[in-house]
Amino acid sequence: MGKKKTYRGELVDEIRGLGQSQGLNHVFTTFLEISATCISAEIDPSNAEEREKRYEEMTSAMDPKTLNCYAHMLALLALAIHEHEEDPCDILGSIYHELRLNNEWNGQYFTPDNVCRMMAQLVNPVDERPEAEDPIMINEPTCGSGTMVIGAVWAMKQKDFDFRHKSFFVAQDIDIRCVWMAYIQLSLYGIPAVVIHGDTLAMKEWSRWYTPLASVPFIKRECAVNSTEKGAATSG
């Protein structure tokens, strides 16, 4: 009896299956854009109108069977990420390489999970400010598929650090596919972040993608500030 296939394995099969008729690169890129746009249209008021319009443009050109395939892919990715909730890893980045879609000629190789985890443990920002009221801010200027951010969250979880309320990540990349990969994964892992499509060196920016929990680390601080201001006004 064969070993049961993982959700990640099923996702790869689904991408390859549709890729036979539409091309692997096209299918993977479309899956990323439609998933990222769908998530952003639902949870980001500042970009909702633009993202919803783009989502409708994409889906209106698809037949129901193809659209259902993409919906199934996103469901499989969500299930795969749920499986790794306690041990977060870069699922889309590994699939990107497995399908050989990375740009080898431009040196596009994503850092493996184990290396990212080791680097996060060495930097160890949690121990530097354990009692800080403001969230720990971490910037990843060349985020790729988000693997360094995911590695940092993995390290935080090893110390039982409440990353959802006490950290915020700014991730940037010049490749829009990387932006979408990072955004989708950070959203599904529940990581507070903004993923920026831009050129870090030239200081150019084209779009911002806020994860569903992007504002969470700042809510407690805002409440504390408001409470202090009210107290000062009352005593005054």
Automatic annotation (TrEMBL):
Source taxon at top rank: Bacteria
Pfam family, one: N6_Mtase
Gene3D superfamilies to which the protein is assigned, alphabetical: Vaccinia Virus protein VP39 (3.40.50.150)
Entry keyword annotation includes Ribosomal protein: no
Keyword tags: Methyltransferase, Restriction system, S-adenosyl-L-methionine, Transferase
Catalytic activity: a 2'-deoxyadenosine in DNA + S-adenosyl-L-methionine = an N(6)-methyl-2'-deoxyadenosine in DNA + S-adenosyl-L-homocysteine + H(+)
EC number: 2.1.1.72
Protein name as it appears in the record: site-specific DNA-methyltransferase (adenine-specific)
Organism: Blautia celeris
Taxon lineage: Bacteria, Bacillati, Bacillota, Clostridia, Lachnospirales
